[in-house]
Design goal:
Helix content is 83%, strand content 0%. The protein has 9 helices and no strands. Helix 1 runs antiparallel to helix 3 (45-70).
Length: 204
Amino acid sequence: MKKFTLIMVLIIPIMWVFHTFSKNFMVDPTFEKFILKKDDILSNESLWVIMIRIHILLAILSLLTGPLGILKKIRVNAMNFHRWNGRLYVLFIMLNFIPGFYVSFFATGGWLSTIGFHILNTLWLGTTMMGYWNIKRKRVIVHSKWMTRSFFLSFANMTIYIIVLITHTIMNVPYGISYTIAVWSCWLLNLLIAEILIRKKIFL
């Protein structure tokens, strides 16, 4: 079980990075399809596109550096690499807070989705900073727990995609409602999975 989980932690982020990059920068680089699903017309569409691109790119970088940070074998055998990779991971999430905060105000589903995204953004930054703060104080185990929570919050977009697929595409729930459900469910489910893996000491 532990070996399978570790393999999935490496494979799933890479697959999702390919999916996200191709979808948003090759298939629909102007985000026309995504904008059409929004409830309201964007007041400044060009600024929103710039911010969402920055947000997605930083999230992709977080998904690439995240697995390398929580795998114990890399931590033990390449500590210097682990430290620099961790610094980059923290930097990407810190930089992503502002574009993430901005695009949240225009989330599909209205103010309920906006609040859900603000909670997600705050939790993602907060868990990351708690991990960084604890390693600075040599609390390695506590650091690992917080970074595990942070890493699983990096999968929020993937969880949203899956929940919308189930509720909207399969169950025919209106898109706006299904999106709002997904926004709130993503960080709850991802943190729950992180806590289960922490208790099982998969990454510790």
